[in-house]
């Protein structure tokens, strides 16, 4: 007669549960922590400047030791490269979504301008504007400038199409793209969270000025007043 297996025997035969989490989960945790390092670094670069921020400063704000950072990044240059890249990638993705949504060129252009404004008021976008790529090694600088060029060309394309469809006055698309990007980029230098205007209110007023200028035209309200009224109707309270 075969011997009956007891509960104790079955328990002994079972494989012990591993105390280590799966590789996929470990990689996910590492990516979350790496993003925290980059976000914290971007905040400090914006507050103090790139040269005045050390890896010790970043580690202290994260409540970790400096050696811990080296598990996620090689050095401060790599941190800056990734922060600037993230800011640029966010812009490109937002512009691509505006293009995919379709509509007239002027509608896509305004949406892209809003995306641009929103991102330069966020940590990675501000880092892109305030620190820029001049601090980077030449090879990294060239790669990131190619991404910037893609944003510039998208603005030029939309201006060209807007002129063709009759929604924009005839102008030099290259110069128009420079003016638009230059004006909106500067927001990233003077914007301070907790100020008088929210990013949405800033976008509304700046875009209205870029669309209509500040000269009052006979027979109608200034474009700025229309834009401000529209923004005030939908957005209340905010930061600067």
Notes on the protein architecture:
The protein contains eleven helices and no strands. It has 240 residues and is mainly alpha-helical. Helix 2 packs across helix 5, helix 5 crosses helix 7 and helix 5 packs parallel to helix 8. It is elongated. 28% of the residues are buried. The C terminus is likely disordered.
Low-confidence stretches: 222-240
Report the average pLDDT across residues: 83
> Which percent band covers the strand fraction?
under 5%
Level-1 CATH class name: Mainly Alpha
The CATH topology turns out to be Tetracycline Repressor, domain 2
CATH architecture: Orthogonal Bundle
Number of continuous helical runs? 11
Distance between the termini: 85 Å
Fourth-tier CATH superfamily name: Tetracycline Repressor, domain 2
Radius of gyration: 25 Å
| CA-based shape | elongated
As a percent range, the share of helical residues equals 55-70%
SS-based structural class?
mainly alpha
Main beta sheet, described?
none
The tally of structural domains comes to: 1
Query: Total number of β-strand segments?
Result: 0
Helix and strand pattern: HHHHHHHHHHH
InterPro entries: DNA-bd_HTH_TetR-type_CS, Homeodomain-like_sf, HTH-type_TetR-like_transc_reg, HTH_TetR, KstR2_TetR_C, Tet_transcr_reg_TetR-rel_C_sf
Protein name: Transcriptional regulator, TetR family
Pfam families: TetR_C_24, TetR_N
GO molecular function: DNA-binding transcription factor activity; transcription cis-regulatory region binding
